[in-house]
Specification:
Layout lengths: L7 H7 L15 E6 L1 H8 L10 H10 L3 E7 L3 H13 L3 E5 L12 H12 L4 E10 L8 H18 L2 E7 L2 H11 L5 E3 L6 H9 L3 E4 L9 H9 L5 E3 L21 H12 L3 H16 L4
Parallel strand pairs: 1-2, 2-3, 3-4, 4-5, 5-6, 6-7, 7-8
Helix pairs in contact: 4-5, 5-6, 8-9
Length: 296
């Protein structure tokens, strides 16, 4: 399996810079459909440099101040999934998803045992999604592909058994993702996290009824194809996310990301789609509640 040449400590060091200033608040509240609060607070800290005893509470408060009043905390392994489920039970602004990341599956000595733990967590009420799962041809080589696909198929089955939204990680694997979803039969609700495809792939996902979640990447100068994909996506199939602490939107690319920066991505999407900002915020909020259920 291919591994990133950058270590976890190096990634943490790169994201240890100062958080950007807060953007102008949104006119209506929205949600961050995909964030990693655990990684954010441990590697980058809390926006504003807070040293609060409750860093998660501080991050939620900063986000709420700009109109991001609901967060979806996403699991990538057993430990982070368990942590997210517990955080969602503690904080009303947070819901959780649980999963083994596609690059995690080939590393596990006992994939079946890990999947059993994920399934047990998926049964909890405040866990509303199974993900991020999927396929990744960028960091996992051919030798790890079978385990990755086995894990993805198992996550699809868990999502369907418990009636949970499936949250998909798809990196350089568009055709495989669609093939496996078509083979297994998709759950009622599917979210393409950090949508990275072009207009053609977007059209295939839209036709299947999937939700496309756009991250800060849609603001990058090089992301013309991604903006074309966003422009053809119906409003009721659009979500927005940070994937914090990654993928910080322009003009702060390279600095730590957090949920309070969602307004930058929402405004970029409004410009890209030609949609009134209030209308887009309302649509994102409604779609988020449809995908993950009520927060309160």
């Amino acid at each position: 399996m291919s591994e990133s040449t950058e270590t976890r400590s190096q990634r943490a060091s790169r994201r240890a810079g100062e958080f950007p200033p807060a953007p102008e608040p949104l006119p209506q509240p929205v949600l961050d459909s995909h964030t990693h609060l655990d990684i954010t607070v441990s590697e980058a800290g809390v926006p504003g440099g807070s040293t609060a005893a409750e860093p998660v509470a501080a991050a939620i408060e900063v986000a709420a101040a700009v109109g991001v009043d609901r967060l979806v905390q996403v699991g990538v392994d057993v430990d982070s999934s368990r942590w997210g489920a517990e955080v969602a039970e503690k904080y009303p602004a947070v819901l959780a998803t649980v999963a083994l990341h596609p690059n995690e599956a080939p590393r596990l000595a006992d994939l079946d045992a890990a999947l059993r733990e994920i399934e047990a967590l998926a049964a909890r009420d405040r866990v509303r999604g199974v993900g991020e799962t999927g396929m990744d041809s960028y960091r996992t080589g051919d030798e790890g592909r079978a385990a990755q696909e086995e894990s993805f198929r198992a996550h699809i089955a868990i999502a369907k058994r418990y009636g949970k939204t499936l949250v998909i990680h798809d990196r350089d694997a568009h055709a495989d993702v669609l093939r496996i979803l078509d083979d297994e039969g998709a759950p009622d609700t599917v979210v393409l996290h950090c949508f990275s495809g072009d207009a053609e792939f977007a059209a295939e996902c839209v036709r299947r009824g999937y939700l496309l979640s756009f991250a800060g990447t849609v603001t990058f100068a090089s992301a013309g194809a991604l903006r074309e994909a966003a422009a053809l996506t119906p409003l009721d199939q659009i979500l927005v996310e940070t994937d914090a602490p990654y993928l910080t939107p322009v003009p702060h690319r390279g600095r730590p990301n957090a949920s309070y920066l969602i307004p930058l991505t929402v405004r970029a999407l409004a410009a890209t789609t030609g949609t009134d900002l209030d209308e887009l915020c309302a649509a994102i909020s409604t779609t988020g509640e449809r995908a993950f259920g009520p927060w309160h």
